[in-house]
């Protein structure tokens, strides 16, 4: 993959915020949110609904999930992610159903996927997208099978990457949407990854790929940096859940997401 370097020596993504042509028009509702944000010159805000974090402990009481989601929607959140992994993040299919029941926006499933059957389960739960993390799946053949099944069911497969090698693998997989994790998912949010990782490697991704900057984002400044680096969306969860006023915080983050 050929790199174009900026004056600071970092890879530069060609025309990330100027409505760069996509490989094909996005057909799934989740990808359309990202494509619309790109066309408008900003990064979309996707809030990650997770009940617990390995680093921060309980984030959202289970009985408060519906109220929390309604707060987010009232603040204008365009898309959501729901974590269904139970051991480390306190998720479950039941919580996903509850999130889906009170929200009409596109919803992405975050899970440690291990089988194609989980793609069918995701469709049955009402998800619009599935986050397929290369680092945890570990088998590109299986990822391809998951991609194919997701496409058959009308789900958007979001390919999760962290390293430069995984970025190359995502290109080989023909990914339309890539989730760029600022942290190593195997560290379960206990490493010190920051938005600086997105700034360093987003430029390696082809301009036709829609990119989500994920994890390690805590502030409006982080969101602004991700947007300027070329991210078409930011995925942020813990910082919103820990805020004393999640709705107000979401509005502040959204205001920072315009490319300047």
UniProtKB/TrEMBL annotation:
Q: In which pathway does it act?
A: Amino-acid biosynthesis; L-tryptophan biosynthesis; L-tryptophan from chorismate: step 4/5
InterPro entries, sorted: Aldolase_TIM, Indole-3-glycerol_P_synth, Indole-3-glycerol_P_synth_dom, RibuloseP-bd_barrel
Which keywords accompany this UniProt record?
Amino-acid biosynthesis, Aromatic amino acid biosynthesis, Decarboxylase, Lyase, Tryptophan biosynthesis
The EC number(s) this enzyme carries: 4.1.1.48
Q: Does the keyword Lyase apply?
A: yes
Q: Per the database record, which ranges form the Indole-3-glycerol phosphate synthase domain?
A: 23-253
According to UniProt, the reaction catalysed is: 1-(2-carboxyphenylamino)-1-deoxy-D-ribulose 5-phosphate + H(+) = (1S,2R)-1-C-(indol-3-yl)glycerol 3-phosphate + CO2 + H2O
* Gene Ontology MF annotations: indole-3-glycerol-phosphate synthase activity; phosphoribosylanthranilate isomerase activity
Q: What is this protein called?
A: indole-3-glycerol-phosphate synthase
Q: Organism, per UniProt?
A: Streptomyces taklimakanensis
């Amino acid at each position: 993959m050929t790199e174009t370097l900026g004056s600071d020596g970092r890879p530069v993504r060609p025309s990330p915020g100027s409505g760069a042509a996509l490989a094909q028009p996005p057909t799934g509702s989740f990808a359309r949110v990202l494509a619309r944000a790109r066309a408008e010159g900003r990064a979309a805000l996707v809030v990650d609904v997770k009940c617990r974090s390995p680093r921060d402990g309980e984030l959202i009481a289970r009985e408060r999930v519906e109220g929390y989601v309604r707060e987010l929607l009232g603040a204008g959140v365009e898309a959501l992610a729901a974590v269904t992994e139970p051991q480390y993040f306190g998720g479950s299919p039941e919580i996903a159903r509850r999130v889906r029941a009170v929200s009409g926006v596109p919803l992405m499933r975050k899970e440690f996927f291990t089988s194609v059957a989980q793609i069918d389960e995701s469709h049955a739960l009402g998800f619009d997208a599935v986050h397929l993390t290369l680092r945890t799946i570990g088998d590109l053949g299986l990822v391809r099978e998951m991609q194919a099944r997701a496409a058959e069911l009308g789900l958007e497969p979001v390919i999760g990457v962290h390293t430069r090698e995984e970025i190359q693998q995502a290109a080989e997989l023909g990914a339309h949407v890539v989730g760029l994790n600022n942290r190593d998912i195997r560290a379960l949010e206990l490493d010190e990854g920051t938005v600086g990782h997105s700034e360093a490697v987003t430029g390696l991704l082809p301009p036709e790929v829609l990119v989500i900057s994920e994890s390690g984002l805590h502030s409006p400044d982080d969101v602004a940096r991700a947007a300027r680096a070329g991210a078409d969306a930011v995925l942020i969860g813990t910082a919103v859940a820990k805020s004393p006023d999640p709705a107000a915080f979401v509005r502040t983050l959204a205001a920072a997401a315009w490319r300047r």
